[in-house]
Amino acid sequence: MLALLPIRWELVLGLVAAVVGFQLWYTRHRLRHIPGPFIASFSNLWKLNAVWHWDMPRRNVAVHAQYGPLVRIGPNHISVADPDAVRTIYDFKNIFPKVSH
C-alpha cells in the first residue's frame, strides 16, 4: 500500500533542511552572548578536534586568553576560568553546619 504513494522528494528534503536549519539557529542563538570559536556555537567539532589531538588543556587556555573568562566551547558547553564565576554558578554554601557536641 505504501509503495503506491508517490514520494515528493523535494518536500522531504525541504523538511529535513528546515529542521536542520532551525536546530543550527536555535543552538547558536541560546548562548550567543558568550564568546568562543565560531564552530563551537553550533557543533562539538571544536572540542572533538582538541581532544583527538590530545591538546585540550592548551587550547582551552588559548581560547580563554583570546575570549575572556567565560568561553563557549560547544553548543551547550561553557568553560569557566574565573573563580568568582564558579562560585556564582555552583553557589557553594554550607547549608548543613556542623554541630559541636
The mean pLDDT is 84
Strand order, largest beta sheet: 1-2
Instruction: Spell the H/E element sequence.
Output: HHHEEH
Got a strand count? 2
- The separation of the N and C termini measures 79 Å
Rg calc: 22 Å
In DSSP terms (H or I, runs of 4 or more residues), the helix count works out at 4
The percentage of residues in β strands lies in 5-15%
Indicate the low-confidence ranges by residue numbers: none
The secondary structure category is mainly alpha
Question: What's the shape?
Answer: elongated
- Percent range of helical residues: 40-55%
Integer count of domains: 1
Largest sheet: 2 strands, antiparallel
Task: Throw out a few tags for this protein.
9% strand; 2 strands; 101 residues; mainly alpha; elongated; 4 helices; two-stranded antiparallel ribbon; single chain
What is the element layout, followed by pairings?
Elements: H1 9-30, H2 45-52, H3 56-67, E1 70-74, E2 77-80, H4 83-90
Structural overview:
- The chain is mainly α and 101 residues long.
- The protein has one domain.
- It is 50% helix and 9% strand.
- The protein contains 4 helices and 2 strands; from the N terminus they run αααββα.
- It has helices at residues 9-30, 45-52, 56-67, 83-90, and strands spanning 70-74, 77-80.
- Strands 1-2 form a two-stranded antiparallel ribbon.
- It is elongated and about 80 Å long.
- The termini are far apart.
- The model has no long low-confidence stretch (mean pLDDT 84).
Structure in a nutshell:
The chain has 101 residues and is mostly helical. The protein contains four helices and two strands; from the N terminus they run H-H-H-E-E-H.
